[in-house]
What we know:
This protein is mainly alpha-helical. It has helices at residues 9-20, 25-42, 50-54, 56-59, 65-84, 111-125, 130-145, 149-153, 183-195, 215-228, 238-251, 256-263, 268-271, 275-289, 297-312, and strands at 166-170, 176-180.
Amino acid sequence: MRQARAADPVELFLAMLAAERGAAANTLAAYRRDLEGAEEVLGDLTRADGPALAGLGQAWAGLAPASLARKCSALRRFYGFLVDEGMREDDPSPALPRPRTRRPLPRLLSHEEVERMLGRAEEEAAGGTPAALRMLALLELLYGSGLRASELVSLPLAAVPRDAPFLHVTGKGGQQRLVPVSTRAAQALARWLAVRPGGGTRLFPSSSAQGHLTRVRLFQLLRELATRAGIAAEKVSPHVLRHAFATHLLEGGADLRVLQTLLGHADIATTQIYTHVEAARLVALVNARHPLAGGSAAGTGSADGLARGSAAD
């Protein structure tokens, strides 16, 4: 563990991220870990030069490309901060390794798999037990509103309006947004609220007075439900259901900008990962509807015409 110093540049950098960028606690903790890991290799980060930073590629050779990219990104932002604040005249970060990463497509559940989970949750909720009704409400909100796990478990009771089908959600960086609640999810919420234990300010409280259901427990509950529904537990997580919400909306024709708002993405580039679904749908459409799809003689002639047109362009 690094020893904090007076006017510690790392602490000042983290304070800036919290105050000016609204970085969440988990984000700040990740930056701290990455910068402390770099200090273990380089020593005082404020004195590290380009050759020292270039050597991180060898020192961190055992890391996955995505992990290396994340650590280097933290260092780039840190050195940019030092230059902006006049703590360094030069920025050595261009010497950092630049691993090539390919963002993986999100794991997905099919419509049929989601329906099986919802059906199983509904069957169990028919008994009226609080645990089963809570599980149904959690599942309906994850799939019906696309909430992040942390957003869902920390929802306050006040987030559920009495006169509008929306939730007031505080997302990453303290950003607030309105999230629509489907009719099914609203009904599941009403059933849960009717049996929810009294006291506390959280929609999904824990045993402690002001606590709430943890993300780890939510993860466990979903996997247990998946197993009971005959679905491999390793396929299911809160984030997989969020991906299913986004992917299935796009399949239904939702606009990417609308989806960005619903998911609470600050950058449209984050939302664009879901366009792989749109691309697959377009390929299927071309194969099914385009005049050339049948490979007929007439189609061949048209293809020649297209080729000539392309050459002229």
